[in-house]
Amino acid sequence: MSQPEPNVDEVVKSIAEETDTPPETVSKMYADTLADYRHDARVFDYVPLFAAKKVRDQLRHGSNRKH
Predict the structure, then answer these.
(1) Ramachandran angles phi, psi of 7, nearest 5°
(2) To pair with 27 at 20 to 30 A between CA atoms, which of 12, 13, 20, 65?
(3) Within a 13 Å sphere around the CA of 61, how many CA atoms are in the beta-carbon half?
(4) Cα–Cα distances in Å, from 5 out to 29, 35, 61?
(5) Is the pLDDT of residue 65 over 50?
(6) Do 60 and 29 touch, CB atoms closer than 8 A?
(7) Average pLDDT along the chain
(8) How does DSSP classify residue 3?
(9) CA atoms of 50 and 43, how far apart (whole Å)
(10) CB 25 within 8 Å of CB 33
């Protein structure tokens, strides 16, 4: 039984608020990451969750680094 797809707008809004990143940036990153994961996936049930986690982690760790 497959998992229901999360509401993309809610996922993007949540990540944007948590990371203080514009929703447009988060939306693009999420769509790109989701496409990458789906390209290689054999099981799709958790792909949206993995994509959201990766984007959230990239924004949290990337925005905290000062070079």
Answers:
(1) -70, 115
(2) 65
(3) 6
(4) 18, 14, 26
(5) no
(6) no
(7) 88
(8) P
(9) 12
(10) no
Tracing tokens 């996922």 back to the chain, one arrives at: 11
Q: Report d(CA 18, CA 2) in Å as an integer.
A: 27
Please give the angle made by the CA atoms of 1, 41 and 7, to the nearest 5 degrees: 60
Domain boundaries, the chain: 8-64
- In our burial notation (b when 16+ CB lie closer than 10 A, e otherwise), range 30-67 reads beebbeebeeeeeeeeebbeebbebbbeebeeeeeeee
Match 């990458």 to its residue by tokens.
Answer: 36
Q: Measured between alpha carbons, how far is 43 from 60 in angstroms, rounded to an integer?
A: 27
Scan for tokens 């229901």, then name that residue. 4
Quick: pLDDT tens for 40-54: 899 899 999 999 999
